[in-house]
Amino acid sequence: MSTPLVEISGLTVSFDGQPALRGIDLAVAPGEAVGMVGESGCGKSVTWLAALGLLPARARIGGRVAIGGQDLVGAPASVLERVRGGRIAMIFQDPASSLNPVHRIGRQVTEALALHRGMTGAAARAEARRLLDQVGIPDAARRLDVYPHELSGGQNQRVMIAIALAGQPELLVADEPTTALDVTIQAQILELLQSLRRETGMALVLISHDLGVVAEACERVAVMYAGRIVEEAPIARLFDTAAHPYTQGLLGALPPIDGPRRRLAAIPGGVPEPWAMPPGCAFAPRCPHRAAACDARIPDASALVEGHRAACIRAAPATALAERMPA
Amino acid sequence: MLRFVASRIARAALTISMVVTFAFIVLRMSGDPAQIIMGADAPPEAVDAFRTAWGLDEPIWVQYLSYFWAILQGDLGRSMRDGRDAIVLVTERIPATLALTLPALAIKIGLGIPAGIYAALHRNSLADRIVMVVAVAGFTVPSFVLGLLLVLLFAVQLGWLPSGGQESWRHAILPVVTLGLGGAAVLARFTRSAMLEVLGQPFIRTASAKGVPWRAVVVGHALPNAAIPTVTIIGFMVGSLIAGAVVVESVFSWPGVGRLLVVAVGNRDLAVVQCVLLLVAVTMVCSNLIVDLLYGLLDPRLRGAARKAA
Amino acid sequence: MRPGGVLLEAEGLVRRYGMRRGVFGRTVDVRAVDGVSLRLERGRTLGLVGESGCGKSTTGRLVLGMETPDGGSVSFDGRPMPSPGTSAWRVLRARMQMVFQDPLGALDRRLPIAAQVVEPLDIHGIGDRASRAARVEDLLRAVGLRPDQGARYPHELSGGQRQRAVLARALATDPALLVCDEPISALDVSIQAQVMNLLVDLQEQFGTAMLFVSHDLRAVRQVSHRVAVMYLGRIVEEGEPDGVLRDPAHPYSRALVSAIPHPGRGGQRIVLQGDPPNPADRPTGCAFHPRCPVATGLCAQEAPALKPRADGRLVACHVAHGEAVAGTGLPRREAA
């Protein structure tokens, strides 16, 4: 992989002594699209909120998040403020409540322009108009003067994306950007994110609970479970040869859209609570291949082939194979 | 917008007429005004003459209608005590009351809102806890208790300030502080909870994620939203500028509208009591109207609704 | 237990709401459901799919008699639905149950699960004390909970377990019909699969007919025998789920199917323009025509009827029926 744009290593987060992230290692290369998949509470959003210093003060954060040699964990506010919305922009799940209800759309876009590109007055307004145009909002000039409640959910999410683009970010983190939207609008937003990535060359991290959504928009995917990345692979490889039983379980839980109706391979049980983490592999209690060794210690992520890592002891033989190959 | 204002004014008129009616009924039911004013040992002929002179011998509904009719024509009646116009008696007391309530309002807003904001921004800190304890104490302790405590401390023990009367500005300090502290406590608690609610909203996180410095997030994004519920409370406080000092004026023997009311009730001086109540109702209703209009100004979601209705 | 005969039949259901525009505005007539007819056989599942505001949830409430239709009729078991609130309706309600999206909201936080499962038995006076307790145990087991979990309170259970508890309560009176309104959309992916499997198992075991209301076509295919696609208060297409997914006939169904996120699909996704329309501002003719890529002049004027194609699929589209040659879509009306 080329020099990463953002490199997360050993990132941990705990809230009031209870672990939410238990060591995240992830690198995002310039211009690439990475998906982060997992169920609610797995830590996929917390990873990026922690990276940008957006968690509440009671969160305890450890590890390193580097962008261009600058460590963001524990960085002073002035550094974080330049990165947020500048080098890394973030959009969220519920567009209607993510915009300030008492400010006009135009003001919310120009605020970001003033912060990151020093634009004010008519120039900022013109650029805001151009951005609304770029994200496909019809009649952009007039929409600058409306309030969020006058727009639909899909249009509000477009506005959020316009605000994110205002700082010309190198990375856009989209946290469940389509979950609150209707199916046909979800398709519009995914399409928009794809075309913007082509136009601007920015990298994309797409956080989603839906493997299908990630599969369409990303080249690489990291699957998270209980505060750790359990598998990381190019998207096609993940669908063909998922190595971690949890990933296999997620794939089996998706209802097929064609072929014979089969019983879904549901993963039994539920996600462990943060105060009752199993001693070894967190997935072991739900795993069909559980062995005694699984409870001994947390398995490390081992590389199966270049770019495919899985944190499962059953993936270990492949590691030995990989080690025999010349680096 | 016109329709919005018209409906509000109609509602206000209804409220005021209900207040007038209520005051009329309660006062007439609580004893014979003629007997009370003339004294228990007045000769029956004198009492009868008084009744005839003030129309108290008419059937009650005739009295009510003629009273209501007079109000509609702007005639609020005369004091049964000294025969002066009730409206004059009441209006000449207003400046004294405002001399207490206006500075008190400044204390409420100037102390309550910053304290509430500070507490919300430093939630669960020592400062937050202190503000909350003081705030709870401030509005659970009745104003006459607080007033008496302040008198005991500053007038009786320390002897720094006078305990009552209206001779100089120093006489106003204790009643103003009594009024101001209670209101500031209410406002601090309200502002704190409004701020906490807003700070938990996703758009605050969006603003931070845009790179807006925290201070600007608070001032530019949180405060304008938190102001919306807080304005309601301030509206109430403005509405009670005239009548909110009844107890405090009595404690500090301050010759304002409140004291006039207390005395007039004791005397069954009907016209004066009704005149004060009418004044109170009008200020309350007006401040509510202003609050509603301010809402529209602060919250574009309501403004849109009002505009569409026009 | 095997399917046999029609259990539920709805004919031309209409539900109007007076919606106020703004706080002081005049009321506008909104047709949430605008002439929906459907038929559900015993022991089968009909999936009702569409986007928010298409009237699918309202339809669910109408067939249960939880709302009174402004037009049309519902018959259950061959007899017309009695008016809501009457004793005849209450008796019938024991045979029809509803399951909602949010299990925590549907359960009483202050009562243990078992007490809530037994409640319908108490209300409808089914069995004596001992037999009720036994029935509750059976029900909990049937939905995959342990009988000892009956003593737990809702907040002590996970989201999936709560939805199981809701299902146990719904099944207590051995209903002939279960209306499930987005029963899985609040749950995590792996838990969704558990609940979908459970619904299929329960139908197998108890022969319950189900109306499965969802925005998720994949989930609908997984559990349903038939699927009806709704758009703005009307059914625009109805047929076998496999057929509809493989070869959707209505342009809206086509867009819905193509919007299903699916790994490895090429670039042939149909992305609809514009937002789902406002029911208060219904377009003339076919309600879908402003967003339709193949709309013609006829579509803007005349609403197409829902009628069978040669292969039996029900479709409401002029183009699909060959009444109009596929156009290139009409210029969109300026958004309000």
UniProtKB/TrEMBL annotation, chain A:
GO terms for molecular function: ATP binding. SMART domains: AAA. Pfam families: ABC_tran, oligo_HPY. Residues 6-251 form the ABC transporter domain. The keyword Nucleotide-binding applies. It comes from the Bacteria. InterPro entries: AAA+_ATPase, ABC_Ni/Peptide_Import, ABC_transporter-like_ATP-bd, Oligopep_ABC_C, P-loop_NTPase. It is a peripheral membrane protein. It is found in: Cell inner membrane. Keywords: ATP-binding, Cell membrane, Membrane, Nucleotide-binding, Transport. Belongs to the ABC transporter superfamily. PANTHER family: DIPEPTIDE TRANSPORT ATP-BINDING PROTEIN DPPD, OLIGOPEPTIDE TRANSPORT ATP-BINDING PROTEIN APPD. This is ABC transporter ATP-binding protein. It comes from Roseomonas nitratireducens.
From TrEMBL, chain B:
It is a multi-pass membrane protein. Coiled coil: none annotated. InterPro entries: BPD_transp_1_N, MetI-like, MetI-like_sf. Keywords: Cell membrane, Membrane, Transmembrane, Transmembrane helix, Transport. It is found in: Cell membrane. Residues 94-295 form the ABC transmembrane type-1 domain. This is ABC transporter permease. SUPFAM superfamilies: MetI-like (SSF161098).
From TrEMBL, chain C:
It comes from the Bacteria. It is a peripheral membrane protein. GO terms for molecular function: ATP binding. Residues 8-257 form the ABC transporter domain. PROSITE patterns: ABC_TRANSPORTER_1 (PS00211), ABC_TRANSPORTER_2 (PS50893). It holds the Pfam family ABC_tran. Keywords: ATP-binding, Nucleotide-binding, Transport. It is found in: Cell inner membrane. SUPFAM superfamilies: P-loop containing nucleoside triphosphate hydrolases. Transmembrane segments: none annotated. Gene3D superfamilies: P-loop containing nucleotide triphosphate hydrolases. Belongs to the ABC transporter superfamily. PANTHER family: D,D-DIPEPTIDE TRANSPORT ATP-BINDING PROTEIN DDPF-RELATED, TRANSPORT ATP-BINDING PROTEIN. This is ATP-binding cassette domain-containing protein. It comes from Roseomonas nitratireducens.
